[in-house]
Each structure stands twice: as C-alpha cells, then as structure tokens.
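Subject: Predicted fold for Cytochrome P450, 416 residues

User T.R. writes:
Posting the sequence so we have a shared reference for the thread.
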Amino acid sequence: MATVADLTVKESSIDPIDVSRKELYVEDTWREPFRQLREHAPIQYVPDSDFGAYWSVTKYKPIQHIESLPKLFSSMWDKGGIAISGDPALLEKWNMKEPMFIAMDPPLHTGQRRAVAPSFGPSEVAEMKAEVQARTAQVLDSLPIGETFDWVQKVSIELTTGMLAKLFDFPWEERHHLTEWSDYGGDVEMIKDDVTIEKRLAKMQEMGMAFAALWQQRIANPGKDLISVMMQSDAMKNMPPEEFIGNLILLIVGGNDTTRNSMSAYAYGLSQYPEERAKLEADPSLIPNAVQEILRWQTPLSHMRRTVVEDTDMFGPQMKAGDKVVLWYLSANRDEEIFEDGEAIKVDRHNARRHLSFGYGIHRCVGARVAELQLHTLLEEMGKRRLRVNVVGDPVRVPACFVHGYKSLPVQLEHY
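User M.O. replies:
I've generated the structure tokens; pasting them so everyone works from the same file.
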C-alpha cells in the first residue's frame, strides 16, 4: 500500500484549470484538461469557479487515500456534502437541508448504511435475477430492428426505472416520476440560480410527499421494499422529514444514474471500439469483466466532494479547514499509473475491477451488486439474441460535472 510520502505531489506547474465547467461535459472535451492535471497538477487549488474555490484531485492514489480518511476529509451534509455544489451558506439561505447517509460521517453513517445494506446483499440480489432477466428480455423484444430509436429512453431509462419501482414497491404506472426526481436531485447546475433552486426544492418536496404517503401505507402493510426496511430500522425509523427526503434522493439518484448511464455507455462506447465489441460478441465469458470496464470507462458520477476538517499538508499543498476537496473519479479511472491506455475500452482489461466508479472505503456504493446485475443481464440478453447496437447520431450529454451521462442516443439494432 502507498505511504503518505509516496502521495506527496509537487507544486502545480500550470495555471488553475476549472474542470467543473459544464461545457466540458456537454461537448465531451474533458479528457485533455484532466490529462494535463494528472501530469502537471494532480492536486491543484482552483480559486474561482461557478461553485466557488476548491481543491481538484485527479489521480487515483491520492483520491483513494482521501477516501480512507473520513475523520480528516468529511462527507457531512452540513459542511457541504458530497457534491461540488454543496455550500453551507446556501443551506442556510434556502433551508435546503437534505441529510443522507452518504453525506454523513461515522457513527451516523454507519447505522443508516447498515440498515439498508442487507437489501443489496448477495442473496437478495440473486433473488432479483429472474425478474431482471424477464424485464430485460421484454424490453429488448419490444425494440425495432433496423429502425432508429433513442436507446436512453427505450432501454436505459426503462430498465433502471423499473428496477427502482421494484426496490421501493412504487406504483408501476407512476414510475416515470422516479426518473424525473432523479434528474432534479442529481443536477448540480440547478444549485447556481435562485429560480432553479426553488424549482428543484419544489420537485424534492413533491417526491417527499409521494413517499410519505407510501410510508403511511407501509405502516399498515410492511413488506420487503426499501421503505419498509427504513421504517423498521432503529437507525432510520424516526428520521425527520428532510432526512427522509435526503435518503430518498440518495437511493433514487444512486439507483438510477449509475446504471442508466452505464447502459448507455455500453451502446455508445462499444460502437466507438468495434474490435472490442467483436471480442465480446465472440466470447460471452468476457461479459463480467466488460461490465466493470464499461463502468470504469463511463464513470457515471464524475466526482465526489469532501470538506477538510482540520489544516493539513499531507500531500504537500496546505489545505485549510473548511476547504472543498473534489475527487475526480472520472480522471482517476484514466490514471496512466493504474490503467494502461485508460481512454480506450478493453473488454478484457486485466484490472478493470479496480475502477473507482462505485467510490472507495466506507462510502462505496451500497447498491453496486444491483447495478452489476442489471448491466450483466443486459449484455447477456443482447448476446443471446445476437443483437448489436449501432450509434447513428451524436449523443446529447448531461450538461453538468456531477452526473456523467446521456440525455439521448440515437441507435439502430442489427443481428450479427
């Protein structure tokens, strides 16, 4: 394991590069700025951005080390939480309190995570497999061959929203609300402007009211769904309303965006690397590794944010208590020291599982196994039908530096 001495970085040799700008993501031009940062300024102070000043951390080992020190680098929501947009002043101004267990430090984090973790355990995920296969088959069999359609809408959103509805036992005919709430909950760009802040808060309240009604139903008739699990947990059953809403945002955004955008990356990415797609089509045993490689290559959440608890010069530069530290998973998953030719998809990459797309340490994604199951099943069912996705137009990308994904992707299917 690397020592702190191994992680010390030289002083930045280039001017600050603000990689939080939405233009980099909507135009898909983020690769070169991150490459420059990894090479010349792996830990750089950015004094000015639309989200305020922040430390930008772009290499794998320092990110991993910071993630392993929650007492020094806090995730607490009232300090700013887990996204670059978090700002205690905004919390105060708008009463925008959305505590959630991913935005907590131990011991609060420990109890709440422990309450929901069993819902995503190996046996529970194994029980989901048959239903996931059936729903994936149903969606794929409904798609036209040789005609253009939007993969994001018809496949990625349909499959992930269906899984969320199952996990929450949410009314099936209203499941489209889950996608809408996820989009609002994860949109850091909406935190910049008073009008959009109000709009986002209204949507989050709408979500909270809908789930509060389900909570009341579960009191009378509890089941195995996530609401029932939360309701029956000592750590979560007495949550105040804002904490309930916060944890819903976490579970909905986490359950939606990682899988939705990785499913879209499967379609888009393999179209960019047809030789790798051919390997996968010829050898289905590569599917488990290909799933990890797609997760690495896409990195559905570009970053996580931490807040410095006390002054430290651990990595060389002096970080002050209260400073915002942004961990760019998107860059770490392309770190040349860890992933050779990291910009490329290689379905047989030997260390694809080392990706940081699910995070690292105590906050590693609690639903990772469910995401892997959904992606594995999609690739498996596509292979059974000998279906290939061909991208026939440019994707429309999410214009933000947090959720790294696709709004639409025109494709056609063919048999191989």
